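User: Once you have settled down, look closely at the record that follows, taking as long as you need, and be ready to discuss the fold:
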Amino acid sequence: MLVEKAEIMTNSNLKITVVQHSCTEDVSANQQQVTTAIIQAANQGAKLVVLPELHNTLYFCQSEKEDNFDLAETIPGPSTNELSELANDYEIVIVASLFEKRATGLYHNTAVVFDSDGSIAGTYRKMHIPDDPGYYEKYYFAPGDLGFQPINTSVGKLGVMVCWDQWFPEAARLMALAGAEILIYPTAIGWNPDDSKQRKSIELDAWITIQRAHAIANGLPLIVANRCSLEEDFNNQNSSIDFWGNSFITGCQGEIIAQVKNQPAIFSAEVNLTQSETIRRAWPFLRDRRVDAYYDLLRQYID
């Protein structure tokens, strides 16, 4: 796995590491890959590690198959126990992403945040659930019911959301209004391999742009951890997805301070959480919001 260090000359106070990796059908191998990356990040001084969406398995949502529910696990459960030990042993905050079995017949796409003492600081259940060719998540996941609430940790208030949530400015805004100090998106997104080169370029650019806009509009740093590499549909019902990687970290004006391309990588950058105060004074978007005029946002569409 490629290791990259961002050369950031700022008055930063929090070192963040993003893990971008590919997955195989071997769940144990995927978990060992995650463990190795977390230990490496901790040994290099990271205080916060962010993992991609559903990092324990192949992206099984490429097709609808009942047996795939066997991949889910409870929270707490085996994966959370292992990640809790890592967080405690290395005194590091970890943002993980798991297929949660909440109850018999009830499942969620859930981010779990572990504090540096190994405790589960909080969870976030994916709110926006896609249902598109190759992304049949509505078959597997019930929509989240925890709202957009930051998770308090030893490194700050983390506004954690998951993948499809990253396209919705309302979600990022609500996290910011609730006091989030960083926006974080574990992600699994890529191309249809049959798409044209031009379409692939447009889609990737749109994905980066919308998230940089969330950082700008809310005056917050932002972290995106995506999967990478081609994954065939192991149920043989769909073609495949070429997960495009391109994980990145921005400052609170949307400036990209660290990014990788489409290959397995561990990369780091330092972010100054106090910078939001300065930026929000200069660009007072929260001050000038017209909340008295936004009531139509509660409507699905204005006919």
